[in-house]
Amino acid sequence: MQSIKCSVEKYPLANAFRISRGSKTEAIVVVASVTSGGVTGYGECLPYARYDETPESVCKQINSIYSGNGTDLNRHALQDNLTAGAARNALDCALIDLEAKQRGIRAWDIFGIERPVPCVTAYTLSLDQPEKMASNARTHQNRGLLKLKLGPDNAVDCVREVRKQAPNSELIVDANEAWSMSQLDGSIEDFAACNVTMVEQPLPAASDDALTGQKFPIPIGADESAHTSEELDSLAEKYQVINIKLDKTGGVTEAIRMLDRAQELNLDCMIGCMIATSLSMAPAMLLTTRARFVDLDGPLLLAKDRYPGMLYTNDKIHSPNKELWG
Predict the structure, then answer these.
(1) 175 and 154 in contact (C-beta within 8 Å)?
(2) In CATH, what number is assigned to the domain containing residue 256?
């Protein structure tokens, strides 16, 4: 008979991290564990206030899933018992980890997919004044992909200054819903001139109908607007890229469905993350072989990751070892 537990853990960030909605100095994660037959699987999530989640509410959801009726939970039943979000993600990943350990296989074998190969991950530059973002870019100029957090002010100046310091890096800009349609229209040609590859979530999710049928010189990506596969048909009329995050989809099981449907709709995909530990990044690696962009840099922004952690070499992230997950 299974036992399900959850705990809250805190990890200080190496530096304050700022986006258009605010700043943070620590990552507060929830770890779910599912034990059966002396074997335990683990999964991690990051409750996100943008989606009305707190560590307390997520733990309450995780604890509520255990009925005590003697029926073991499986990840397929989980999809019907919890809504998409952080709690379901932690449990879905814990159940996958548990299954891999019980069967003596790796998580990618469960889904019949290839072992993830080392791939370039974005490195995120926190929102700041143009000169400070430029200084940060200079430090990381040898990375293949930089993601710039931008706000409603100085966006074009920030991109121009970063481009000067990182002339060879691919650039993504992420407004986290901070712009109006006029701000997007007024800046996107300048972004194109700086060879920006993608503009992520420029408008509030509630206002993104304004993107319907629009043609821009740079692909537009959905993050806060994109949660599960059910939304993708309507999003395909507005966006060209979908950011798939396990904390939004509610785990790997739904994320794979989302990836499949996105590709049927000819949408490119980014595999993204919240700022969390390697235990959050490991399951997301299963999706990377089919993604246009990989953004799994969460542990790089922490003062100290959990051990064992993901292996990062230069600008690449490697598949997880079995001691960590899956």
Answers:
(1) no
(2) 3.20.20.120
